[in-house]
Amino acid sequence: MTQHNKSTQLALWQMIVFSLVGIVMFFVPFTIGNKRTIAFDHAASYLVNEQKPLAIVLLFALMIYGVAKPFVTGSYKHNLTNKILTALKVAGLILAVLYITGLAPELIMQKDMMPFLFDKLALPVGMIVPIGAMMLAFLLGFGLLELMGVLMQPVMRPIWKTPGASAIDAVASFVGSYSVALLITNRVYLQGQYSTKEAVIIATGFSTVSTAFMVIIAKTLNLMDFWNLYFWSCLVITFLVTAITARLPPIATMDNSKPIADVTAQGQSRLKLAFDTGINTAKASDGLLKVLWINLKDGIEMAAAIVPSIIAIGLLGLLFAKYTPVFDVLGMALYPFTYLGGLPQPMVVAKGLSAGLAEVFLPALLLADSDILTRFVTAIVPVSSIIFFSAMIPCVLATNIPLSVPKMILIWFIRTALSIVLACAFAQLALALGWLA
Predict the structure, then answer these.
(1) If you average pLDDT over residues 309-313, what whole number do you get?
(2) Residue 28: which domain range?
(3) Cα four-point dihedral sign 46, 50, 54, 59
(4) Model's pTM, two decimal places?
(5) How far from 403 is each of 85, 201, 264, 275, CA to CA, in Å?
(6) Domain for residue 118, yes or no?
(7) Any idea what DSSP says for residue 388?
(8) What InterPro entries does the record point to (predicted)?
């Protein structure tokens, strides 16, 4: 059906039914075979675990496409960043081939190197992004985003300086994946509903690792007994830090103009306006199959762009963390904040947390044997820092959001420093109240 002959009743029906399907898929975890997570994560996990040979074939198809595309379109010539990223994609594909054929040097075959990057990062991300993108059709295609945008405006705008629609981004990353949240942000930014400043606040402020990954961090640091305390403190600290960084340079000085203004409730009920806005979007939408296909294509493009980069950039980060003093130097910059936080070994913790810039999971590996206070802070800070080289930075670079690597590193440092101070204060309080006993 085209937008010209879609009735209000049909549009309302589509908005309610498809949005409910989207909400269930993204926000309602359920258990299949001892694993409790959301629907599209189950689908991706099934591919990765039960159909691994097929998943590997699909992953290599994605990587080959991702590596070939810059050469076919000539986009690698545009600027230095594109040239470097294209070279890294080629390196990522070569490394994946060496790993799968068992020909990789022993140095990178240690279990915390290529096996970790390929099996625990590249493979799940390669499957989650296209599946998640397709499921996004239900959340983004039929008016729910616009309806929520109008309803959430009074909360999002004053606190985080972003439109109401960004509330969906924020929740999607916590329950789903930063890669899927960035896909939403990029889609809405390209539609002209986010300014550059808003897109950057959302990309660097809400698009953190999923709840499923936070479980892995909590298990590694032996904190599952305090899961609820950990999850909610993570959520609150991440969003508190975002409210602060939105008001500091470099984000505060970014371009805040956009082609489509926020819908405001002037002299009418906000609930009625929200419903009208959602229904009008549903009326103008294409058929479900077309929307699914467009989203799947977006997901394939993004997965193809990020997966080879994850392998190459991730390996570089892991090698730097293990064999060079790069993170020791970064650690010295973070030392004043861990010292201020009253942690027992502030220098050790500062160095461990700085490795979170390479890979969000590294601090948990490096500080797994620490005291309870340090472990709790270590579990929160990399999640709240959001930015890391092994996957999140390549994801942002694969979008149209104009954010350079130096700016991302600066935002990472500001977020990490603030996260350490807030996480330490909260952990000390929790310890004093006996919540961390």
Answers:
(1) 86
(2) 8-433
(3) positive
(4) 0.78
(5) 14, 11, 29, 34
(6) yes
(7) -
(8) Gate_dom (IPR011642)
